[in-house]
Fold:
Amino acid sequence: MPWARREGGFTLIELLVVIVILGSLVGLAVLSMGSSSSSREVRDEAQRLATLIGLMADEAVLDSREYGLLISRDGYRVMHYDEAEARWRDAGDGKAHQAPEWIRLELELDGSPLKLVAPVKREDDPIGLSGEGDRERRRAPRVQPQLLILSSGELSPFTLTFTDQRPGGTGWVISSDGFRMPRAEPQEARR
Structure:
């Protein structure tokens, strides 16, 4: 009678059920122990911008083009300098990156914002030949970025703080002395 004698082990199904239960418990423990999602979002926003600045610095050197960041309390916009028109233009799709509404950006610059001055052209509008649209475009307010990324590889020295405005929120800081590429680090590590 082969069925009458049972060995003292577990069946394969019993082992698989135990493994699934343990895996679920470990997964829940890891998720609950990890940093909160808001602090991860602040970190991700700071690292995203630090990486973007590094990429823009590389592209500025390779393309011999000046780039800039126009930073507001809730986001930033990438711009490039158009030498032909002597003004800053939106780069890419022209949309500003909006941070989540509970993240605030604070920018500190060493000194005042740099200004690129266009060379003076005497033939800018000889005898009033340019159209009304061209004159209106020239009269429009000129937007200038606070943070410049130059084709020489230099950056405007800056410190940019990403702060979670909610209670118990964390902060991340991106900074550069103007020569080294910025990197994101927790605000507590800088104190």
In short: The mean pLDDT is 80. The first helix runs from residue 12 to 33. The two ends are 77 Å apart (CA to CA). DSSP finds three helices and nine strands in the chain.
